Amino acid sequence: MSRFSLNGRTALVTGGARGCGLAFAEGLAEAGADVAIFDVIDPVPAFFEISNTYSVKTAYYNVDVSSITSLQKGFTSFKRDFGGKLDICVPCAGINRNLAFLDTGFEEHQKLVGVNVMGVYHTAQLAAKLMIENGTKKGSIVLVASIASYMAIRSQMSSAYCGTKGAVRAMCPAIAAELNQYGIRVNSISPGYVRTEMTAPFPHLLESWKDEIMNRRVAEPEDIRGGCVFLASDASLYMTGQDLCVDGGVTKW
Length: 253
Description:
Elements: E1 10-14, H1 19-30, E2 34-39, H2 45-54, E3 58-62, H3 68-81, E4 88-91, H4 106-134, E5 140-144, H5 159-179, E6 185-191, H6 203-209, H7 222-232, E7 243-246
Parallel strand pairs: 1-2, 1-4, 2-3, 4-5, 5-6, 6-7
C-alpha cells in the first residue's frame, strides 16, 4: 500500500473548486500530497477543509486556463508559494454546452476548445517545465478526458465537447513519449457519467443515463478520485501514455 502514498509530493489540479476536480484534490491530499488548485470560480467550502482534514498545505489561485497570460501568472504564484516543487499535475478544468451540431457557432466552439484542449495542453506543458526545472523523480501528469472521447453522449447534444475530449485522449500518448526522457509519466483518465454541477442542470439526463450504465447508477465525484490517485502514485509506475476509463461499464455495454 505504500506505493499509493503521496507523502512529500506537491500536486496542482485545475478546475479544482468543485466537482471532479475537487474530488481529485481531496484524493491526492488524502494520500499525503500538498495540493493547489486553479479555477475561475471560488472554491466550495469543502476545499477549505482539506488542509485540516489531511494535514497538508493547500492553496487556491484564480486562473483562467484558456488564457496563457492567466496560466503563466498562476504558475508563477504557485512556484513562489510552494518553493518550486511540483510532482503531480491534473488538468481537469473543462466546460460543456448542450448545443446541436448545426447550431454550434464558431465563437462558442472556440470557448470549448480554449478551455478543454488548449487549457489542458498548456497546463500540462507549464507543469512539465516546472517538473523538469525542479528535477522531480516522481513526475506524473494526469490529463482529464471523458467517455465523450469514446462515444456520443446519448440524449445530450455535445458534438463539440466530444471533439475536445477526443483531443485530450489523443494528445496523451504523444506527450508521454516526449516527456519519458525526463522521467515524467503522462496518462489520462476518462470519467463516465458523473453527478456534478456541470450535469446538475440536466436531471432528466441523469435519470435516463442510469439505464445505459452497466452498474445502473450515475457516479459521484468520489467514485472517480481513486483512479486519479492511482495514476499519480508509484502504484502505476509502469503506466504511461494510457487512458483509464472509469465509467461503470457504460462504454462496454
